[in-house]
Amino acid sequence: MGMAEGGGDASADASEMKLEFTPTWIVAAVCSLIVFISLVVERLLHRLGKVLKRKNQKPLFEALQKVKEELMLLGFISLLLTVFQGAIQRICIPKGWTLHMLPCKKEETDDAHGAAAEAHFQAAFSAGLFGGRRLLSESGSGAAHCLIKGKVPLLSLEAIHQLHIFIFVLAITHVAFSVLTILLGGAKIHQWKHWEDSIQKQITGDGTAPKQVTRVHQFEFIRDRFRGIGAISVIISWLHSFVKQFFGSVTKSDYTTMRLGFIMTHCKGNPKFDFHKYMIRALEADFKKVVGISWYLWVFVVIFLLLNVNGWHTYFWIAFIPLILLLALGTKLEHVITQLAQEVAEKHTAIEGDLVVKPSDDHFWFHRPQIVLYLIHFILFQNAFEIAFFFWIFTTYGYNSCIMDHVCFIVPRLVIGITIQLLCSYSTLPLYAIVTQMGSYFKKAIFDEHVQEGLVGWAEKVKKRKGLRIGNGLATSHAQNETTTKVELPKMFVQTTPAMEEGRSSTGEIASRPAT
Fold it and tell me: Is a pLDDT exceeding 90 seen at residue 501?
């Protein structure tokens, strides 16, 4: 019996061995492995950045920098959790506080096991992949510190460690899903390239069609999109838009008409403007916004974790939020195309020459096309959260964990997650890429990189000169008017808000000769 106890004590001492009593070869080996893995990842990211720079893929390079920022944020979160884990465990709360809003129903314990129950509080976090073992010797001292006061620690070291892993898995899953969405959506958009090539071959002279009169309903775009006038027609058009997003979301007539509408509004003097190349550049520029995790997304994470209460089936219900948003967003984008067709059909019975639609912010929610990007960002993040949470629970607690919920709730969540990923990649994202060009503004991607940099420098110089003139009191009314006119275009490059990163349609003449 004594030998058994001695063996148990030796095992406990070995499991809680401090660094000062750990063999140096073990410390060196572990550190070498961690440093090696970190350097390999860092070198791979660095080499990928050099490849993107060499291929002049500045938007994708900036997206890679955004990924590095997210990794740095994760490292900082990891550091905070590690440094303050002892202090967190020494925060004591009444035991009754830990009996409410639990992810799993806590089993009742009798008096004989009461002390053990207090030491192993928060059963939802302490029965996972890592068993019930303590990560550091501070675990026992922290629990003992609170037990002396008749309380329990705020959070166990085991729970902190598992929360640490979940945050890391969530961030990596979000980045991976965002990259996958952009790759699949980009592949779909690249299929439109042959439409652009065929249009370019047909353009001769000034790019305008022969001045022949054509009835509006003879245009394929109007036949496919216009559903008549009246209340019943409005309902039918919305239903048609809802169904349209699932198959043939963008046809050649849609692409041709929206392309011509964009060119006639923003760069009328350049009928051979490569609209497809512009869309790709704009999408790549938006990618760096989608791949990041903004502060409001972290707020949603906290709210979701708070509502994960046993019996509420929270993660089953919130799985429908991104699905509903995605369907509503796809329907709205399709309906914008329908509105473009309806505007023309209501105003004209016949048209001389080409069918030209008029882009306008009025077609979008709150007159802001940028809202679409924020919604896609939120949808992708929440879907990544659902998938990350599922696999984290599965690998940490197992399939039969109470947090995993019943099979009837698990399967629909996985099906919804896969559906969202595929629908967003192959339908919603391509729709976003082309339909958001139908706003009142063009994006700075309309210019090549060197032109953008030149305009940014010009805008900054104009602002500095204007500031000096005002400071010295030498500005005249004529100079002020001239400066105001010059600053109108560069505003879109020096402001940081999404709304001001786009140019006004009135500046289309300046955009008439972008490099294609």
Answer: no
Helix axes 370-397, 157-190, angle to 10 degrees: 130
Please write the tens of the pLDDT for every residue from 398-438.
777 777 767 777 888 888 989 998 999 889 999 999 998 88
Number of alpha carbons in the 13 Å side-chain half-sphere of residue 183? 6
pTM over 0.85: no
- Collapsing DSSP states into helix, strand and coil, what is residue 131? strand
Q: Are 424 and 379 in contact (CB under 8 A)?
A: yes
Residues near 32 by beta carbon (within 8 Å), at least 6 away in sequence: none
Mean pLDDT to the nearest integer, 293-316: 81
Q: 443 near 504, Cβ under 8 Å?
A: no
Cα distance between residue 166 and residue 154, in whole Å:
19
Find the largest Cα–Cα distance for the chain.
Answer: 105
pLDDT of residue 325: 93
Please say whether the beta carbons of 386 and 318 come within 8 A: yes
Rounded to an integer, what is the distance from CA 420 to the centroid of its chain? 13
Residues 6+ apart with CB under 8 A from 240: 227, 334, 338
Residues 224, 252 contacting (CB under 8 angstroms): no
Rounded mean pLDDT of 454-463? 63
The two structure tokens encoding residue 390? 């599922």
Q: Can you read off the two tokens belonging to residue 366?
A: 């709150």
- Cα dihedral across residues 213, 218, 220, 226: positive or negative: positive
Which helix (DSSP H) or strand (DSSP E) does residue 477 occupy?
A: helix 477-487
- C-alpha gyration radius of the chain: 30
| 249 DSSP assignment | S
Give residue-wise pLDDT tens across range 74-95.
778 878 888 888 788 788 888 8
Other CB atoms within 10 Å distance of the CB of residue 510: 16
